[in-house]
Amino acid sequence: MKRWITLIGFLVIILTVTACSGKDEKATGSSGDWTPEKPIEIIAPAGAGGGWDTTARMAAKVFTEEGLIDQDIGVVNKPGGGGAVGWAYIAGKQKSSYNLFVSSPPIVLIPLNGQSEYGHEDFTPLANMIADYAAFAVSADAKWDNLNDLFEDMKKDPASITVVGASSPGSMDHIQFIQIAKAAGVDVTKIKYVSDQEGGGLTQVLNGSADVYSTGVAETVEQVKAGKIKVLGVSSEERLEGEVIEDFPTANEQGIDATFVNWRGFFGPPDMDDAAVKYYEEKFKELSDSQAFADIREQYGWDEMYMDSKSYKSFLDEQKEEIQSLLDELGLSK
């Protein structure tokens, strides 16, 4: 009898442990469906007002207002290192399902030129959301009226013309200009690029200390409206739709066979649970398909460019190969 009581007690312990283990497994999402049970944090690895910040805040706004995600979503800015500070923060949140970040080509570029130990392979791609494009602007009274005028002068003496951007050398604002200039026949190894990461690139063009402003389309609209600058070209395949930006000519239509896509999407920490990845994939797809986010894309001149986690990873691997080749040519690889 004593032996049976002991055996029954042992079985009760086993069943209790198993039940508790199953409960923990379900809560962490390691099997079956997963839904968030506490607030979600989205990191914008830059200051307020830029492309990462705007994309993160607009996504959080629609997720909340459209009821796509029930939990609170907070957007936190962690600027520094062209994104590296924010990436290091997320790298420390391994396996978390509650810490996301937004990124774009710098997560491929910055590690390749040796400015960050973290690259896209160190994180969990969730979904790409949009395609943004480069704009190349000059002061309203500049002598160039199109990209061909500019590049003809650059072919004669590339270093005589200063290009300014907000990113570091070898990162996005630099590379997007290089890619278009190279297709136009400019010796890109001699281009003079100046980095102004404090956001003073436009001021430099307006006061004459720089000639060309390499930036995003959305960053030029208000100054074009004010008559202070003119956009010589954009890097999209076709003309963009929307007030003001519909007047910006593409490099393609000016006979320059090149484009540059500033894709922008969301990532999770290393080793995020598969169930959480599936959840976010589906939610970002709902976001992309919503009319509210379509209106935001139109407002900022963004194109729809949704990719799920698997497609996004393959795309990023291809981007890395292409960019590595360009940085090697410029002598900017680590």
Give a description of the structure.
- This protein has eleven helices and ten strands.
- It is of the alpha/beta class and about 325 residues long.
- Strand 1, helix 2 (about 50-65) and strand 2 (about 75) form a beta-alpha-beta unit.
- The radius of gyration is 24 Å and the shape is globular.
- This is Tripartite tricarboxylate transporter substrate binding protein.
- Belongs to the UPF0065 (bug) family.
- It holds the Pfam family TctC.
CATH architecture level-2 label of the largest domain: 3-Layer(aba) Sandwich
CATH class of the largest domain: Alpha Beta
Distance between the termini: 74 Å
**Please, what is the CATH homologous superfamily of the largest domain?**
Bordetella uptake gene, domain 1
Give the strand tally: 10
Q: What integer value in Å does the Rg equal?
A: 24 Å
| CATH domain topology of the largest domain | D-Maltodextrin-Binding Protein, domain 2
Protein name: Tripartite tricarboxylate transporter substrate binding protein
Pfam family, one: TctC
InterPro entries: BUG, Bug_dom1
Family: Belongs to the UPF0065 (bug) family.
